[in-house]
Amino acid sequence: MLRRPEHQSSFRFSIADVPARERRNAVCELRERGVLPIEPLPDCDLQLDIAKWVLPGVGILSGMLCGVRQGGTPQSAGASDELFFGVNLAGRSTAIQRGQEAPFGNGDAVLLSCADSAFNIPRPTPVCFVGLRVPRQQLAMMVTDLDDQVMRVTPGATDALKLLTGYLRTMLNEQALASPDISRVVSSHLLDLIALSLGATRDSAIAAQAGGVRAARLQAIKSDIATNLANGSLTVAEVAARQRVTPRYVHRLFEDEGTTFTQFILRQRLDRAYRMLRDQRFSMRSITSIAFDAGFGDLSYFNRTFRRRYNATPSDIRNSTRN
Fold first, then answer.
1. pLDDT confidence of 5, banded at 50, 70, 90?
2. Fewer CB within 10 A of the end CB, N or C, for the chain?
């Protein structure tokens, strides 16, 4: 089923709700219309659930594929000066171009040219992936010997590549990309991180530290906090250690946002408790239990800070959903 959100330059497509006998035709139709460069493989189980985003200067395709061949040709509209940076988030694939093959596995990425010759990536088994189309000319100014990187695999253990995939997981949603200004900033960050993954020039690497790297690390830290929010003793040292940065670096990132590590955690815990109090699924849970689940170890502190933030008590919020 094709679903087009408010962000008109993006869409989602899944064959989950398409009758089995019609799935191959549905995929072929998208290729014939020039929407997606994907075609079914013979004698393979067909699965497809993807999202496509068109940001300023960057095209993104992500999701899950199985039983299809993903490709690109020099004749593709607007592809004459583009490169394709494909990342396997989970699963294994082999990229084929210029008579060469480049196998890449979990977390790995490969750079392909959209201009030189057709490329294809058979996906006979399930793969979760993200692929980015980026301007060759712009990336060439940021990467040392860019043409030598085509058909080379970037290992998943590469720090910049891990930052890139983490950043994409956080930012690829309608809410995050609702604003054209935000989309432009995200595009710039993605180019920074791709360049670092491939081998950025000295000047580009320095610029990326203040751009894409900073943004990706901040998002990774916020995700880490969200995952461990219920830990009432969560410290900046723990988060910094998991993210392999210094506590001072974490503090500096939040200071640049106009807040502090402690204030951010408190806000996230209060927001979690607020959502739980308004959710009927937790209506039988005590307020004390909800406070503890949100990471509060002191009930009086929870009540005091909750009232200060929402100008209402936890009981007021809970009761308002019952009226």
1. very low
2. C
